[in-house]
Amino acid sequence: MRPADSSHLLRILGVAFGIAVVVGGTIGQGILRTPGMVAEGVPHQTLIVALWLIGGVVCAIDAMSTVELASSIRRTGGPYIFVGRAFGPLPGLATGLADWLANVAAAAFVSVVFGEYLHRLGIAGNVPLGLLAATLVLTVGVIQLLGTKVAGRSQELGSAIKASLFCILVAALLLAPRGDSVAIVAAAPAATFLGVIVALRGIFGTYAGWNSASYFCEEVHDPSHSIARATFSALAIITAIYVLVNVALLSVLTPAEMAGSNLVAADAAARVFGPMADPVVTAISLISLVTIANATIMIFPRVAYAIARDAGIPGLSHVADNGTPRLAVLVTVAAAALLALVGVYDLLLAFSATLFTAMGVAVNAAAIAMRLKHPDLERPYAMPLFPLPAIFALTANAALFVMFAVEDPVSAAQAFGLLSVLTALTFTAMRRLTVA
Question: Which of 173, 232, 248, 417 has the lowest tally of Cβ within 10 angstroms?
Fold first, then answer.
């Protein structure tokens, strides 16, 4: 009989879960809000759609490095494991801390937006946003504590509902009767370099989460092949939804009308269906936010657990009988709820763009390094045309990193300063614990 508390996760998840956690962890209110930012920076219909499609293609190429590493190393923890295996424990720890901190902040942000949308619907208007946000975090935390099987099923159900609602929204906007079609503005202002950077930041931020399946290598059946199937299938679904959503929005609104809107989908739906559309789109946003919060609170305790297991930290490296790393979940939930309550997540979110692109560079480099250091390692999924996809993705991530750093150098410097201090302190503490 399996002990009630151990350091081993349960291998009980399938490809359907892998697809669901990628879809659930990626598609959210971003696709309903970000098109306004993109249209503001790139005021051309064809270019807008092309950039969303390019975003999906670039992410698929980028994913080849992650999938190759996940299928060959097959350990839970995502980029922390990959970078640590390729370059050593210190770079791995820095990657893991950056990943955990940025995504805990993202969970807090998503939960605060959830509270804002509840208020928008006239629900719990007297309850502070921070309290509503913390309630969502705690609720999904309880779901995670019920066990891996329950948490996985909740993600599959939520993602299926969310994907269906987005398809219905696209169909409604494209097929609903309306007046004259939107005219293409021939004299639209030219897209600027800064505008394209802002648009790309929004697009790649909206695709963030495509690597979610790679965090569960010890919990999915046949990770050698399941991670690849789940990641690429989900990316195809996400890219199709994102492109179709933008096509549908542009069939109703001009880029100029979309520019600057913080909820373009509601504006487009209101144009077609009138005032009744706003609460419907807001409700879709709420469901999207819940599935993202659920995915985040399921994924990132695995990073804390993986770090703790390697360091031999008691408690954090233990797993309950139902497959949940309970203390790691509780720590992640507490951190996200606290950030949501006090609002400090804004600071960490400002750091996330440069940190995520730097992590992308590190993972691409890790894929190349592992091929050179361990050429005989079993690779059930080997990226085609190696090393071209890894070099392309590394170059793309490096270019984005430079763009984001140039656009906001203060946040970039603060992000890496904070990460350096936290990594040094954590690494020192872990070494002392190991010696003791």
Answer: 417
Distance CA 274, CA 101 (A): 41
Q: How far is CA 201 from the centre of its chain?
A: 14
User: Is the Cβ–Cβ distance between 271 and 84 less than 8 Å?
Assistant: no
pLDDT, tens digit (0-9, with 9 covering 90-100), for 180-221: 444 444 445 666 777 888 888 889 889 999 999 999 999 999
Phi-psi map region of 312: left, alpha, beta (phi>0 left; psi -120 to 50 alpha): left
325 and 318 in contact (C-beta within 8 Å)? yes
Closest CA to 155 of 300, 9, 328, 22: 22
CA atoms within 13 A on the CB side of 73: 27
Q: Give the integer Cα–Cα distance in Å for 371 and 385.
A: 13
Percent of the chain with pLDDT over 90: 67
**Biggest CA-to-CA distance, the chain:** 75
Rounded distance between C-alpha atoms, residue 149 and residue 94, angstroms: 30
Q: What is the DSSP string of 64-109?
A: HHHHHHHHHH--TTTHHHHHHHHH-HHHHHHHHHHHHHHHHHHHHH
pTM: 0.92
Place of tokens 């809107």: 261
Estimate to the nearest angstrom the gap between the alpha carbon of 59 and the chain centroid: 12
Nearest to 120 by CA among 337, 339, 341, 286: 286
284-309: b (≥16 Cβ within 10 Å) or e: bbbbbbbbbbbbbbbbbbbbbbbbbb
Q: pLDDT of 296-319, one tens digit each?
A: 999 999 999 999 999 888 889 999
Distance in angstroms (rounded) separating the CA atoms of residues 331 and 43: 43
Return the amino acid letter for 29: Q
